[in-house]
Amino acid sequence: MGNKALSLIGVPTDIGAGHRGASMGPEALRVANLASKLERRGFEVIDHGNLQGPVNPWQPPQDGYRHLPQVVAWNEAVHTAVYTELAAGRVPVMLGGDHCLAIGSISAVARHCREQGKKLRVLWLDAHADFNTADVTPSGNIHGMPVACLCGNGPQALVEVGGHVPATTPDVFRQIGIRSVDEGEKSLVREAQVSIFDMRRIDEVGMKRTMEEALADVDENTHLHVSFDVDFLDPTIAPGVGTTVRGGPNYREAQLCMEMIADTGRVSSLDIVELNPAFDKRNQTARLAVDLVESLFGKSTLIR
C-alpha cells in the first residue's frame, strides 16, 4: 500500500452497545502508543482527535432499537470523517467505540469505491456475525446489526446513511472468527449468503487456508477494508471487551491473520472497535490490539 498517510479518527461512544465503556476505547489505543508505533513502520500518522456526538442516554429499546437517533447521528459523523480522509488519499483508521459505527465507516468506503470504480472487500474479524434485525434480537442493541444495515436490512434512517441504499451487498463481506450467531440471525445470514469462516472452519483447515480463501481474488483494483472487533480474539488474551465469547483465535492465529492481510498490500481503511477498558487488565487488550494493527500494516518477524 506504499507509505500512505494514516488518519486516526476517534469515535468515543458506546451508543450501540449493551455495556458501557467502549467510549473509552480511542483513548486506550492512544495510551498504548498506536500513533508512534505506526510512525515507526514508516507511515505519516495524523491524529484528528475525537468526533463529537450525542451522549448515551442509556434507554430501553423503542420500536425494537436502542438509541436509534443517537446511533444515526454518530454514524453520519463517522461517514463524513472517513469519506473526507479517503477523498484526500489517506487511510482512515477509526478508533471505536462500538461496532455499530461500522455503518458509517463502511458506507463511506463503499461510496469511495463506487466513485473510484474499485472493488470492495470487507474482512469482518469478529466473534459475531452482526446481521441481526429488530425482529430477531430482543436487546435492540444496534452493535449487533451493522452488517444487516449496510446490506439494506434495518431501520430506514440507518440504511440510508451515506445516501446509497443498500450501502453495500453481502458478497463483499468475509467474516472470520465467528462463533456466536443468534438463532434468528442464522437464517438471515444463510439467506443473504454471507461468506462466514467460523471457528470450526479455522479449527478444521487452519488460519492459513482460511485467509487464503478469504483473500482470494483480491487484486490491484480491490479496496480492502478491515473491520476489527477486538472480541474476535480469545478472551484469555483479550479480556477488555463487553461481549466475550470463548474459543476465539489465539495470539499466533491472530498474528498470522493480520500478516496475511498485510501481504496483500491492499489495506486501505480500518475499524478498531469494541475495545472496552472497563473490562481490561492494565490496558493489555489495547496493547495487543495495537500489536496486531502493527502487523496489519506490515510488521513481521522476518524480512520477507
UniProtKB/TrEMBL annotation:
Its EC number is 3.5.3.1. Binds 2 manganese ions per subunit. One of its GO terms (molecular function) is arginase activity. The keyword Chloroplast does not apply. It holds the Pfam family Arginase. It catalyses: L-arginine + H2O = urea + L-ornithine. Its cofactor is Mn(2+). Keywords: Arginine metabolism, Hydrolase, Manganese, Metal-binding. Coiled coil: none annotated. CDD domains: Arginase (cd09989). Pathway: Nitrogen metabolism; urea cycle; L-ornithine and urea from L-arginine: step 1/1. PANTHER family: ARGINASE (PTHR43782:SF3). Belongs to the arginase family. This is Arginase. It comes from Dyella halodurans. The lineage of its organism: Bacteria, Pseudomonadati, Pseudomonadota, Gammaproteobacteria, Lysobacterales. The gene is rocF.
